[in-house]
Specification:
It is built from 17 helices and 11 strands. The chain is of the alpha/beta class and about 400 residues long. Strand 10 and strand 11 form a beta hairpin. The longest helix is centred in the last third of the chain and has 24 residues.
């Protein structure tokens, strides 16, 4: 029996990898919908190749263009636009891949959760912004939430399936979240001041979009993952340890009270966790090459340099503060990264800007979607004002 799949953020690297795995198993999966913000040409190519039932773009003008292009190409995909359509396709498929980058993923992902779907979570920001609310909705709806980030998927595979209710209940003492260290792991602080956007986006192991690549270079990516791990696995920040592992072969580990450490290994290819989430609790072929341990040769580990990567400290502090602080952290970081990519600020100004924004805001409970989105907007306003003040002061 085939299952229907919606891919939110279909034109990004996670989205295209998901479509690759789905295409390998036409007997198991049928593509219900694909979405993109504004990449209409890329979405047209995906529709022509994969022929989903529905395609959704953000804006009416892009949707009109896509509908006309698909009609000319004799592709029967229906085209819609806007957030209501995004939420509709998220709620109407049996499996939903949430691969939209940034805060924009929160509302459609929650729509899928509330509909009780199997939600494959590749977006970090939904949990970072609204962890308590999000996990409460999962529990109440009966949705199946499966992490797709390679690190969280690895931890999920290393834990017993009855891990809900705290790590202590299943004998786990620590979660070991691995990090490649990004392209600047061994750079001197004075070198970091000169980093260009292209250098920051040249990741040594993974192929990712520009925003996530910069987050990896600042290690904010790992800070966001720490927050995400706390919510996914009911862990405290103190129970999550970050381990720099340059080869990206061990994707993460769980340490147990008896001294055991269980690790998940594999080549750095996102089709492995995607296939795991699509087929769980079964396993399917994903097209990923087998891991050659002899070619790998060695596995190295080191502690992260907190002075070189202040974003790690900021993320831990935001999680410890709780409430709306992680939402503010995420929003300020999105503004800062966009400014760096536009060459408005230098690389090391990213954590400085985020810290300034967090210091200027008062954080309350994150008990409704409205207050979370209000904090997201407020943090962006403050970050934008800080940017303008910085530029005026030269």
């Amino acid at each position: 029996m085939t299952q229907t799949v919606t891919v939110l953020g279909a034109t990004g690297s996670i989205g295209t990898s998901t479509l690759d795995v789905i295409a390998r198993h036409p007997d198991r999966y049928r593509l219900h919908a694909v979405t993109a913000r504004s990449s209409r040409q890329a979405l047209f190519e995906l529709c022509r190749h994969h022929r989903p039932e529905v395609a959704v773009l953000d804006h009416a003008e892009d949707a009109r263009w896509l509908a006309e292009a698909l009609t000319r190409a004799d592709v029967p995909t229906r085209v819609a636009h806007g957030e209501a359509a995004l939420c509709e396709v998220a709620a109407s498929a049996e499996i939903v891949m949430s691969a939209i980058v940034g805060a924009a993923a929160l509302t459609p992902t929650l729509a899928a959760v509330r509909a009780g779907r199997r939600v494959l979570l590749a977006n970090k920001e939904a949990l970072v912004m609204s962890g308590a609310l999000f996990m409460r909705e999962v529990a109440e709806s009966g949705a199946v939430l499966l992490p797709i980030d390679s690190e969280h998927n690895a931890i999920f595979q290393c834990l017993p399936h009855h891990h809900r209710g705290g790590l202590e209940r299943c004998g786990v003492t620590r979660l070991l979240l691995t990090a490649s260290g990004g392209p600047f792991r061994q750079w001197a602080p004075e070198q970091l001041a000169q980093v260009t956007p292209d250098q920051a986006c040249a990741h040594p192991n993974w192929s990712m979009g520009r925003k996530i690549s910069v987050d990896s270079a600042t290690m904010m990516n790992k800070g966001l993952e720490l927050i995400e791990a706390c919510w996914l696995f009911d862990a405290s920040p103190e129970q999550v340890e970050i381990v720099v592992h340059p080869q990206s072969v061990i994707h993460s580990m769980a340490a147990y009270v008896d001294g055991s450490v269980i690790a998940q290994l594999g080549n750095p290819d996102m089709r492995t966790p995607i296939g795991h989430g699509l087929a769980w609790p079964e396993r399917i072929d994903t097209g990923v090459a087998p891991l050659d341990l002899f070619a790998t040769g060695r596995l190295d580990f080191e502690a992260p340099d907190m002075a070189r990567f202040p974003c790690l400290r900021l993320a831990r502090e935001a999680m410890s503060t709780g409430g709306t602080a992680p939402a503010a952290l995420n929003a300020a970081n999105e503004v800062a990264v966009a400014a760096f990519l536009a060459e408005r600020i230098p690389f090391m100004a990213i954590p400085t800007l985020v810290e300034r924004v967090l210091a200027r805001l008062e954080h309350g409970p994150a008990d409704s979607l409205e207050c979370i989105l209000a904090m997201d907007r407020r943090a962006r306003e403050v970050a934008t004002a800080e940017l303008e003040r910085r530029e005026q002061n030269g």
